[in-house]
Amino acid sequence: MKIAAGQFTSVPGDIEANVGSMQGLVRAAAGQGAALVAFCELAATGYDLDLIAGRPELWLAEDDPRLDPLREACRTTSTAALVGCAALTSGPRPSISALVIGPDGELLARYDKTHLYGEENDVFTAGTRDGRFTLDGVRFAVAVCYDNRFPDVAERAKADGCHVYVASSVLDEHNDSFEKVYPVRARDHALPVLLANAVGPSGVGDCPGRSAVWGPDGALLATAGTQAPALAVARIPAAAGADGAASGPER
To answer: From which residue to which does the signal peptide run (predicted)?
Structure first.
């Protein structure tokens, strides 16, 4: 299986433009044979906490029609996509979520970030469950940015039988996670790790991109560099038990 991290510069608050960018990257990743393309944290709006807090119309529903162009791209290319967004919850605050759209264009999974960082606690509601989904018989773990600083998240993923660890993040150019977190998680738990990062201006500063895939030994398999838009595409080791079927929605 090939997997991809897609990076682009989000337009703050412009869901239509950002979905269009993701749609194009899904098609490009599919052209390189990727079964999944993941995007960064809050890719649909950009990482701007004040903007998101002040405009509830930027909070997405799981079936939000503004994601339809992306669903169509997934369906017509038989490719799954992991979309970072602010998502509606049952309460007064949104969650920082990863919505996984399956290769049929339907919702495959939703993960809500469990470890909120700093001012995120004033805007969002934290999730309570680990992120999991299955695609083509391969079990994926999902984590968002600050989640990845906690080793037990990856430990549970390995113990739970996950074959691949996907991280959707927003990391600035000074963040040490590129060296001290993602390849370490891969090596320590013998799991391929995919990082989808932001590129360009964001609420945490300038982000360098550097979306990447590391192998289960921690070796770098692919990087998107600092360009935008760009893809990091890599083939991961075949997982035991692959059956060619995607699971139903997991939350």
So the answer is: none
The 10s digit of each residue's pLDDT in 63-74 is: 999 999 999 999
- 17, containing H or E segment: helix 15-31
Q: In order of start, what are the domains of the chain with their CATH numbers? A: 2-235 (3.60.110.10)
Q: How does the average pLDDT of the chain come out, rounded?
A: 94
The token pair at 140 is 């994926």
Please provide the DSSP assignment of 102-164 as one string: -TTSSEEEEEE-SS--GGGGGT-PPP-S-EEEEETTEEEEEEEGGGGG-HHHHHHHHHTT-SE
Tell me what pLDDT residue 244 has.
39
Give the strand pairing for 95-101 and 80-87: antiparallel
